[in-house]
Amino acid sequence: MSLNKKSVDDINVKGRRVLVRCDFNVPLKGGEITDETRITAALPTIQKLMNDGGKVILCSHLGKVKNGPNEGESLAPVAKRLSEKLGKEVTFVADYHVTGEEATAAVAAMKEGDVVLLQNTRFRGAEETKNGEEFSKELAELADDYVCDAFGSSHRAHASVAGVTKYITEKGGSNVVGYLMQKEIDFLGNAVENPVRPFVAILGGAKVADKLNVISNLLEKCDTLIIGGGMAYTFLKAKGYEIGLSLVDDTKIDYCKEMMEKAEQLGKKLLLPVDSVTIKEFPNPIDAPVDAEVYEVANMPADREGCDIGPKTRELYAEAVKTAKTVVWNGPMGVFENPTLAKGTIAVAEALAETDATTIIGGGDSAAAVNQLGFADKMSHISTGGGASLEFLEGKELPGVVVADDK
Ligand code: AMP
Fold this sequence. Notes:
The structure is a single chain. This protein folds into two domains: 8-181, Phosphoglycerate kinase, N-terminal domain (Rossmann fold, 3-Layer(aba) Sandwich), CATH 3.40.50; 195-394, Rossmann fold. Helix 1 packs across helix 2 (76-86), helix 8 (232-238) packs across helix 9 and helix 10 packs parallel to helix 11. Helix content is 36%, strand content 16%. It is an alpha/beta fold. Strand 2 and strand 3 form a beta hairpin. The protein has helices spanning 37-51, 76-86, 101-108, 132-141, 159-170, 179-193, 212-221, 232-238, 253-266, 311-322, 343-354, 365-372, 386-393, 399-402, and strands at residues 17-21, 28-29, 32-33, 55-59, 90-92, 115-117, 145-148, 175-177, 199-203, 224-227, 269-271, 275-279, 293-296, 305-309, 326-330, 358-361, 381-382. The protein is built from 14 helices and 17 strands. The mean pLDDT is 95. It has a six-stranded parallel β-sheet with strand order 5-6-4-1-7-8, with helices on both faces. A six-stranded parallel β-sheet has the order 11-10-9-15-16-17, with helices on both faces. The structure holds adenosine monophosphate (AMP). Adenosine monophosphate binds at residues 205-207, 210, 229-230, 247, 306-307, 331-332, 334-335, 337, 364-365. Adenosine monophosphate is lined by residues 205-207, 210, 229-230, 247, 306-307, 331-332, 334-335, 337, 364-365.
């Protein structure tokens, strides 16, 4: 997959209608936006297109829309907040059909620099169904060019993410990426495909099964692969260690053996925990007090559960990060929701905060951990897309990236 994509800096949008797929999937409570990070993050691309004289037509999904269109998942609150932030009225098309007469009329009335926001794209119920073709076509009819700036949705071949581009191309328009997408491609894509070495990848989280392709792909690309979290115990069992009551996937033991052999053949370092913080009973609620005891992996008792990397492992992993020039991290080192079992995750976050290396945090729990710990501004890049960033790390082609025009 070529990652050399045209961006909003490569097109001239003066007087043209530009459809921008944003990620306005913001949390709402009683109609109020409780976290507007995603709206703020979308502003640079929108402002660039407005300033260049484009007619800016925004679209996004919001929520899962499981039971059909409803006011609770309308984009109306986003239109209001966006108007305030842009200092300009954003015309909201409230029609649950998303495209159609109301949208067409709103777009027809636009002047250069105007902004229209369409209704929640999932209201149409056609993002991923066979009706997606018609929806894609109708979205494309509203615009001359298309900008994708919704990285969190770019692993989905949805109508508003990928389907629409075919029809934009057919009429000679451009399909480009916005600034948010560009940053994700630069860091997650290029840093992994073409890393400054040594390149250290750190993987954690609950299950091996969720990260099979990530492990395999990163092993090929990196110099050192560090494994922590619940998934480390399937590796440790594959090495013949007692793992007590720790999380394990017995169907993936052979896979772990294969990966360890692959590391050896490729001459890559694969680091596993040398000690664990163990508990007798899983806390309920998750942040309840626990009776933590540290054991070396060779002395793990059969009646305890490993829930975090131990102090020696913390040191080992922090040391491995020190000499790195590129570090990618996805997944916590333990049950970080519990303060007693969060030390491994905190140690890794600290090690990344201290290094001069390019540090890239995959979305999801590790991004949340880095934010909570106040280390966000010490990282080179924190991905906004959980699923999408994992697929990037798997080396997969992301539909929303593939369809953008190459430079
Ligand atoms: P993931 O969604 O795969 O990134 O996994 C994140 C979850 O893994 C978090 O909720 C952690 O509590 C959990 N986790 C991490 N390490 C362990 C462990 N050793 N045992 C059980 N759960 C773990």
